[in-house]
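Predict structure. Chain length: 153.
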Amino acid sequence: MLEAQRPAPQSAADPASVQTQALPHLLTAQLQSTASFLFCADEIDERPHPAASAAPALHDDILRAQARLLAAHAACLYDVLKIDDIYAHPLIGRGDILSGHRLRAFAGAPLRDPQQRLIGVICTVDTTARRWSDRDIGIVRRIVAQFTSRRLS
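Prediction complete.
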């Protein structure tokens, strides 16, 4: 399984940082998904550069870029955004779909501080359409709750 993340800006020696870095791996393992990502708030606002799309990209880079675009939608919510199939979801327009990707299913939730400011988004993706179950969404919510409780302690 492919797993990638960009940890929240904290000291590498900080135990909370190490635990935060493990969250995407935990999500991928529990949901048996293709990959999971942790995007910082400032990373979600970045759009892919047109010049970068002209050069051949690795599949992993395209998958991450597609997940980041969908994470921007999740960042606007206060609960889990679940997309069973990006080609059939009413929220996703053709401009939201990058060429060359294989991502089909997405489940992601915003990570917020106690004042409800966006810290980032944690998400998981699959390369096939997938009907996210209530159990799957519950796992995403539990991981968000774990992150929030660690940030508050």
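Summary: Residues 1-15, 49-54 have pLDDT under 50 and may be disordered.
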